[in-house]
């Protein structure tokens, strides 16, 4: 009886090895790729969670009552906070944020300095998107000359991402590829707040249909599903090849003599 137990124990590992022989190269490939694919899927799920939290914060803050511009400088986290402005635009120093498209139409976003009368602050206000299809001449920008009462909200660009370098340009309006308030105020020659404010729809706004995030949480979740599906497919292929290889080897192995 003791002998038969040892025999069964000896046959079990050999039977498992005979049923699954993936080979060294496929095993190394799976060990290298599978953790990476799973990690990418988890990263996309984390990004989806971050975007949901960001959208929830943006929605809550953009439904709140606008604060005076004088309170902006004291805020530790001004992102998406609504602001009430009263003053006028500086039409002589317009900036065109390039590489912006809407519904497949090429265009720019128009940014101009704005002087707030109540606080005495200079603010950088993004008035929205306009089409610019004829690149041989600057787009026509109509700027109200009178004092305005406007509502805007603070936009804080997400960290990272590809940034194009600006080419030096002479005269105004200046063409830029990214918004750097400190550099812009230096070019304008004024001491303004290092923030970008985006106008809400109104008389002075152009197309102000602002997306809060470039990639929605649902798309991140979809990407995660794709990464997990690829990891599952890789694991399934690994198991299939290992079993198939073991069966092929078994067919070519010499059979024991029944005698």
Give the SSE layout.
Elements: H1 2-19, H2 24-62, E1 67-68, E2 82-89, E3 95-102, E4 105-116, E5 122-131, E6 148-155, E7 174-176, H3 181-188, E8 196-199, H4 217-252
Parallel strand pairs: 1-2, 3-7, 5-8
Antiparallel strand pairs: 2-4, 2-6, 3-4, 4-5, 6-8
- Low-pLDDT sequence parts: 3-13
Helix content: 25-40%
Numbering strands along the chain, what is their spatial order in the largest sheet? 2-4-5-8-6
Secondary-structure class: alpha/beta
Written as H for each helix and E for each strand, in order along the chain, the element string is HHEEEEEEEHEH
Number of helices: 4
Rough shape? Answer: elongated
Number of strands: 8
Overall residue-averaged pLDDT value: 84
Radius of gyration: 31 Å
Largest sheet: 5 strands, mixed, barrel
Percent of residues in β-strands: 15-25%
Distance between the termini: 24 Å
């Amino acid at each position: 009886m003791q002998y038969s137990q040892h025999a069964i124990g000896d046959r079990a590992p050999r039977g498992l090895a005979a049923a699954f022989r993936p080979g060294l190269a496929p095993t190394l490939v799976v060990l290298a790729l599978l953790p990476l694919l799973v990690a990418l899927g988890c990263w996309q799920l984390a990004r989806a969670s971050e975007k949901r939290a960001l959208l929830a914060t943006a929605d809550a803050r953009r439904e709140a009552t606008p604060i005076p511009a004088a309170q902006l400088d004291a805020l530790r986290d001004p992102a998406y906070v609504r602001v009430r402005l009263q003053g006028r635009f500086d039409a002589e120093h317009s900036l065109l944020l390039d590489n912006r498209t809407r519904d497949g139409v090429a265009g720019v976003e128009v940014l101009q300095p704005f002087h707030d009368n109540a606080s005495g602050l200079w603010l950088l206000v993004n008035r929205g998107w306009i089409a610019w299809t004829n690149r041989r001449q600057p787009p026509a920008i109509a700027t109200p000359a009178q004092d305005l009462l406007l509502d805007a909200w603070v936009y804080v660009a997400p960290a990272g991402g590809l940034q194009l370098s600006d080419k030096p340009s002479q005269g105004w309006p200046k063409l830029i590829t990214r918004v750097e308030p400190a550099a812009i105020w230096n070019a304008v020659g004024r001491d303004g707040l290092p923030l970008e404010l985006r106008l809400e729809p109104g008389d002075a706004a152009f197309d102000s249909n602002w997306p809060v995030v470039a990639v929605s949480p649902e798309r991140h979740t979809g990407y995660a599903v794709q990464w997990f599906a690829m990891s599952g497919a890789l694991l399934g292929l690994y198991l299939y090849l290992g079993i198939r290889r073991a069966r092929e080897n078994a067919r070519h192995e010499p059979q024991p003599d029944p005698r």
